[in-house]
Amino acid sequence: MTPVKMHTRALNLFYGEVHALKGVDLDMPEQCVTALIGPSGCGKSTFLKTLNRMNDTIASVRISGEVVLDGEDIYAKNVDVTTLRKKAGMVFQSPNPFPMSIYDNIAYGPRIHGEKKRIVLDEIVEQSLRDAAIWDEVKDRLKKPALGLSGGQQQRLCIARSLATKPEVLLMDEPTSALDPISTSKIEELIDELKRDYSIVIVTHNMQQAARISDYTAFFLLGEVVEHNTTGDVFSNPKDRRTEDYITGRFG
Amino acid sequence: MNNTNHGSITQKRRRPSEILLYGLIFLLAAFLAALVVFIIGYILAKGLPAISVQFLTTAENPIEETVGIFPSIVNTLYIVFFALIICVPLGVGGAIYLSEYAKNKKIVGAIQFASETLAGIPSILYGIFGFVFFCVLLNLHVSLLAGVLTLTIMVLPIMMRTTQEALRAVPKSYRDGALGLGATKWYLIRTILLPCSLKGILTGVILSVGRMVSESAALLLVAGGSAMYMPRGSVWEQLSHSGSTLSVELYRYAMSRGDNSTAFGIASVLIIIVALLNLLTRFVAWRLNKR
Ligand SMILES: Nc1ncnc2c1ncn2[C@@H]1O[C@H](COP(=O)(O)OP(=O)(O)OP(=O)(O)O)[C@@H](O)[C@H]1O
Ligand SMILES: [Mg+2]
């Protein structure tokens, strides 16, 4: 049994009156890919955001229960959110490059955490872009605005931007939903590479993708985790009737 | 099977109502453009002949009966410059505080309401307040400094308003992206929010300059209504003297002296100064954006 990198216990989240997460208990093992699947609006993005406290910015949000990273409760009073988010980076559901050059986008994270040396930054930028399978497409225009890239390129840029801070946990919200099959398979290969060093939690609507790349799968429904098991078991031998229906496309 | 006939797509069809509306909008736009050109043209046509080197570089001389507006030009630039130096950081800072930091929504709402109300009251009220508060209570007398402070209060709501709008227009996804990478709020403001709102802030500056340059009633009360002497002494001495700006002079020449040709001359100078200040602001924006 692999050690657990992150886990949640009795995690409840409310958006005002809306009960979006209902007592979620989930273990996310180290150096593994955990896939979150489930119909639209069931709370996958919400759950992902609680893992690096991105819900803090929404005033109406109330949270109870615990979220633990490396044995520490990330909602404890003395937590430094900046360090937490460096450890647990996030790729958002829709690409959101900043209105600045490609280079500055990638260097943004390292600069937050105090990296100033040009040589180091150059190195990080190139490596991150290579890892995100976009280096060849942008290497000649690093100084050009990132907003001039295509949607798929922007998404890979955002992945590169998250990698640049060298996180330990990577939270990805449908990172390939805007990509063509070629870049999608590049990203999937990348995820496979990355899990040697990172723990990855990925939301996906693509069942084949979940089956291909993940080690564990959690099925969400209306804010609850209905089933959580190794990906093999979830897909070949689902315990819950609703999981089976969802995976085989009989509802949702 | 498909028997609806939509006609050829290359055939442009306009409904009569659409043509009518289009024509109306065109006429309206043309009328507005013509009006602006006419007003500016009229002022310049009547005013430019009054402008000479002497007019621009000397003070009025009642003995030799020559007219000069140099002191008022200097007073105007002084007041605009110093008021901007105070109200831009204050307005931008206040807006940042209100939209990014303030937690208590009720207090934010109250401040918002107060500043909107302030933006709407007639400027003479600022004049009276400025006179009582700055000139008398703080003992600044009738001076350019009192004028600077009064105008600062007057345009502060404009600065805050435009900056807040600009901050609000920054997409949420930029904030999420930056915070998600671990940026602190201040880092986010410095690297993303302020650069993105630059245009809006500069719109605020342009509006504020326009309001300050055109102000006469309030300044007549707090900064004085004459500009007989050539500027001399240090900046501080200048600020502690009374003096009139171009708009105040314009008002005096047109109203109490009935000297319309000088008034139009001053009006032309004002138009040119405002145009130059706008160009300068745009230039600054362009330079900052390039960085
Ligand atoms: N900022 C918010 N304020 C209020 N309610 C929200 C907010 N964000 C999400 N919700 C609600 O919480 C529930 C879960 O939303 P969430 O975005 O987590 O779904 P999801 O599983 O990611 O869906 P999708 O697959 O479509 O991305 C939905 O009912 C949604 O309407
Ligand atoms: Mg989602």
Tally of alpha and pi helices of chain A: 10
Widest sheet, order of strands of chain A? 6-7-8-3-9-10
Number of domains of chain B: 1
- CATH topology type of chain B: MetI-like fold
Number of strands of chain A: 10
Q: What top-tier CATH class of chain B fits best?
A: Mainly Alpha
The name of the CATH topology of the domain at 4-99 and 168-244 in chain A is: Rossmann fold
Helix/strand-derived category of chain A reads alpha/beta
Main beta sheet of chain B: 2 strands, antiparallel
Tell how many strands the DSSP assignment of chain B holds: 2
Helix content of chain A: 25-40%
Radius of gyration of chain A: 18 Å
CATH architecture of the domain at 4-99 and 168-244 in chain A: 3-Layer(aba) Sandwich
CATH A-level architecture of chain B: Orthogonal Bundle
Sheet with the most strands of chain A?
Answer: 6 strands, mixed
As laid out across the biggest beta sheet of chain B, the strand order is: 1-2
The rough form of chain A would be described as: globular
Arithmetic mean of pLDDT of chain A: 90
Number of helices of chain B: 12
The H/E string of chain B reads: HHEEHHHHHHHHHH
Describe this structure in words.
The complex is a heterodimer of chains A (252) and B (291). Chain A has 252 residues and is an alpha/beta fold. Chain A has helices at residues 44-50, 81-87, 102-112, 118-131, 135-138, 151-163, 181-194, 207-213, 231-236, 241-247, and strands at 4-15, 18-29, 33-37, 61-69, 72-73, 88-91, 169-173, 199-203, 216-221, 224-230. Chain A has a domain at 4-99 and 168-244: 3-Layer(aba) Sandwich (Rossmann fold). In chain A, 36% of the residues lie in helices and 27% in strands. In chain A, a hairpin with a 2-residue loop joins strand 1 and strand 2 (18-29). In chain A, helix 3 (102-112) crosses helix 4 (118-131), helix 3 runs parallel beside helix 6 (151-163) and helix 4 (118-131) crosses helix 6 (151-163). The radius of gyration of chain A is 18 Å and the shape is globular. With 291 residues, chain B is mostly helical. Chain B has one domain (70-290): MetI-like (MetI-like fold), CATH 1.10.3720.10. Chain B has twelve helices and two strands. Chain B has helices spanning 16-47, 53-57, 70-101, 105-120, 123-137, 144-168, 172-180, 185-214, 217-222, 235-240, 246-256, 260-290, and strands at residues 59-61, 66-69. In chain B, a hairpin with a 4-residue loop joins strand 1 (59-61) and strand 2. In chain B, helix 1 (16-47) packs across helix 12 (260-290), helix 3 (70-101) packs antiparallel against helix 8 (185-214) and helix 6 (144-168) crosses helix 8. The mean pLDDT of chain B is 84. The chains are: A alpha/beta (252), B mainly alpha (291). The interface between A and B is medium-sized, with 25 and 18 residues. The complex binds adenosine-5'-triphosphate (ATP) and magnesium ion. Magnesium ion binds at residues 44-45, 93, 173 of chain A. Residues 44-45, 93, 173 of chain A line the site of magnesium ion.
